[in-house]
Amino acid sequence: MTIYNWNGDVLTEWKLLQDNMSAKEQAWKTFMSTGRIPSSIDISPEVLSSWQRCKDRGMDPYDEHVTTVPLHVLSEKLKNNNWLIELVRPILQETADNIRDSGYRIDLYDKELCLLMRFGKKIAGQDSERRELIIGESHAEADAGTTSTNLAALLERPVQLMAYEHYKTMCHGLTCASVPIFDASGNLLIVLTVEGNCWPMHKHTLGMLVTLKYYIEYLISKDIRSYSGINEKTISSVIEMIEEPAIVVDNTGKILFSNTAAQSMLGEGWNSLIGFNCETIWGKNPFREVLNSQHAVSNRKVVLSIGSAQSAFFTTIKPITNDNGKLIMAIGVFKKALTGKSSGAACAQKFKAAYIFDNIIGKSPEMQQCVKLARETAKLDNNILILGESGTGKELFAQSIHNESNYSSGPFVPINCSAIPHSLLESELFGYVGGSFTGSKREGQVGKFEAANGGTLFLDEINSMSMEMQSKLLRTLQSKTIVRVGGTEEISIDIRIIAASNQDLWQLVKDGQFRDDLYYRINVISIYIPPLRERTGDVDLLIDNFIYNFSKQFKRDIKLNEDARRLLQSYSWPGNVRELENVLERCLVLSRVNNNNVISISDICTYNGIFEFYQKQDNQLILSDPPQDESAETSDAGSVLTDYEKLLIIDALEKYDYNIQATAQHLGIARNTLYRKIKKYGIKQG
Ligand SMILES: Nc1ncnc2c1ncn2[C@@H]1O[C@H](COP(=O)(O)OP(=O)(O)OP(=O)(O)O)[C@@H](O)[C@H]1O
């Protein structure tokens, strides 16, 4: 065969090569039949040793069977070598494109010599359907006989084999050059093989391949995954020991590894995320912050896009540096936050906050100021402390804040700390695992912290919490995790705390009854709701609002007479809005019982607190306005008042020796009114 260069000159060098090939053919044939080679023919000792090993194994040189690894093994190999494949793919692809017309192609083998990737096209004239190498084919010597691939791996250096140097006849039409690729510690990572038709043979193939080898090894040495001491295997085994999903990124933010838990978290497509920058996949995320600052973040809430869904996690990320203090990677551990769809959604249904700011009645400057502050702070995620006497509307505010906050889609879970015995408060708040104490449910119970996850936990009357519980609450607020009573598992929680106290909490701190560190934690923002008696004009608004609501509820058109209104206005309302609401509700019920549509003083005074209040007054109000609806006075409720009025009059008459003028003056009523009442009550004049 005559080989020409492109000027048409005969290449004498090729002639030599051809002769050389003929000699090798003869040597191969002799070896296969006798186990020896003619002494005149030069076969490299490494090739000869390989032939010998193959022969010793009883390998048939004419056998064209191709050994492939099982599919699941191949898939595992592809997974484990993904980062390397991605690293070298662009280089090999470009090289293969450049040598496309030469009839050569590039194969990438893993360190066990299994074909993982092929770059380039079919080799004309050589690749019969059978010979066409397939991904997963083993090029180990025991399977494929002597090849450049297994010799390069064995000898740990570049190797070129031509035609008859291969053990098996199925490779005799090929020329192959292989280079082993090592990591910085000298561990074999992959083998690259360029193979093509035996004729024409390019001598520079091996040179090109060696250049590629050094370039790729340089790239690998810069890649953290091949750092000595922290190779893939080490990192993989370390992060595999972490039960939660764990992800490792290099110092540029590129995702290097993930453990099994992370792979199930990331779903089916996790494999394709390896090698990508975490920002490309998840956008803004705390890995970048850790890489930039080289400071760890702990229990940071992140929302990651996984497939088409978004999931919330708490992540702790630590930067890892080498001996010289150089940042080399960051490891992040993720814990699924029980928000929204899981416990949150169910609880959000169960624990709904009914009130919004528009439901808060009050035009007094004091109240307007409170609402303004609460609205402004609702959107901030800080803990809030609401202070105020009992019944001032603290829970109403807490619900309104929740509904206008970032946690509004989650549940609003109230718990009154004073209503639950100290011994039970812990399990009520933290929940318990099944059978952790006598009387506990077998299946355990979710506590208020978990129930409130993704939403707001309203700790009412926090002032009554024991010191021991205060410490546990503080720990929870700091770590954002809880452990159920009797359990060990740490559960991450993401909740907003709104606490309320009807006592001066700071005074309790000074008295040593409330932890100052907890006080500072819950008191990031505080809202003081003034008592009703200090809210000028609000009583009237609240009266109208409650009468309107109850009228609607009882389907009656109820009115309040002026004196009754004045009575309500002058009362000091120690029970605040709740007391006012109760009084009016009671009056509305009475009015229905008595079939009376106007609420008068007599109705209101059926309420002990107000009745006593009048006992301490100078009684002007009560006496100046006799009940307009006489029928009301005949009722049980009315009789209390009339009895009382009668007694007052008798008292005063006796005091002033039945002097009508003096008695009327003392009572603050007109003489005629006094006469009318004396008559009405049948009081005998002394
Ligand atoms: N400004 C207001 N407008 C309308 N209703 C109000 C207002 N303030 C309080 N209320 C009503 O008064 C009642 C008591 O309010 P709430 O329970 O919020 O008070 P609280 O301060 O949390 O009481 P406690 O300290 O006893 O828990 C509720 O029925 C609430 O709807």
From TrEMBL:
Keywords: ATP-binding, DNA-binding, Nucleotide-binding, Transcription, Transcription regulation. SUPFAM superfamilies: GAF domain-like, Homeodomain-like, P-loop containing nucleoside triphosphate hydrolases, PYP-like sensor domain (PAS domain). It comes from the Bacteria. SMART domains: AAA (SM00382). Residues 360-589 form the Sigma-54 factor interaction domain. InterPro entries: AAA+_ATPase, AAA_lid_NorR, GAF-like_dom_sf, Homeodomain-like_sf, HTH_Fis, P-loop_NTPase, PAS, PAS-like_dom_sf. Residues 231-275 form the PAS domain. It holds the Pfam family AAA_lid_14. PANTHER family: C4-DICARBOXYLATE TRANSPORT TRANSCRIPTIONAL REGULATORY PROTEIN DCTD, TRANSCRIPTIONAL REGULATORY PROTEIN. This is Sigma 54-interacting transcriptional regulator. It comes from Anaerovorax odorimutans.
